[in-house]
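Office hours follow-up: a student asked to see two folded examples consecutively, so here they are.
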Amino acid sequence: MADISARTKCEIYTRVMGYYRPVSHFNNGKKSEFYTRAYFSEQALENSRFIEQFS
């Protein structure tokens, strides 16, 4: 089993205004907005079920 103390921090990057920037460099307000985002899922759309049924 891996030792937890041997782990390294994983840096999360996001695209901002055409370039990638680490989330750790965001201010507190921007960090909270990033972590509360709802991500788009095409599978959740009603249209995708319709397309699967009739294609």
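And the second, which I mentioned at the end of office hours:
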Amino acid sequence: MLQKKAAQPANSESKAVTPLDSLDLRQALSWVIVDIHAKGWAQGTGGNFSAALSHQPTTLLMAPSSVDKGIVQPEALLEVDANGQVVAGEGRASAETPLHLAIVEATGASAVLHTHSIFGTLLSMHYAPLGEIVFSGYEMLKGLEGIRTHEAHVSLPILANSQNMTQLSQEVSRLLLQHSGLYGLLLAGHGLYTWGETLFQARRHVEILEFCLELAYRQLTLPKLK
């Protein structure tokens, strides 16, 4: 289970204000989706994103399927129930909704973000035979909730991609129940799933893990030292 977010400074004047501080969840999720698209991590209709409106029963706020993620407006977001059915809004829920539900139920997360970055896609295939990619030694790892040292070892497990979302969501559930403390996972040839106790935390985890993925790829291209 992810650790709780550290308390924020009491002096609000010293804290930079972001859209996530001042907007409601619907506006905030829309902003996050457009921001991730702008970074090139969810081009075209790629990626899917959710934030929990409630737990027990789970209700998710989600981007509709097959829409350009660069133009998702707050009013276009769907409300989806624990069975993956749209209960409010117009459009279809993503075919990968069962994966979001599995992650929320296994981790208690309040947001799940799925990117289709070039580096995540390439490395998920490259390291698939090993079943994971491990990051260590990077100061940026301290951007992940609960990490206090660059010496930490952070694993991103890699699962085979599938179009059978029921089966794949069951594999994700088993993985998360067997290995607590994960920050994300990769689907081979597909991309990154990460999550957080808040939407802001999940977005931060996306940024840190995408940074590490790009770093790992660039490291592979460096000439070996003599």
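Two things to take away from it. Confidence is low (pLDDT under 50) at residues 1-22. Residues 199-221 form the longest helix (23 residues).
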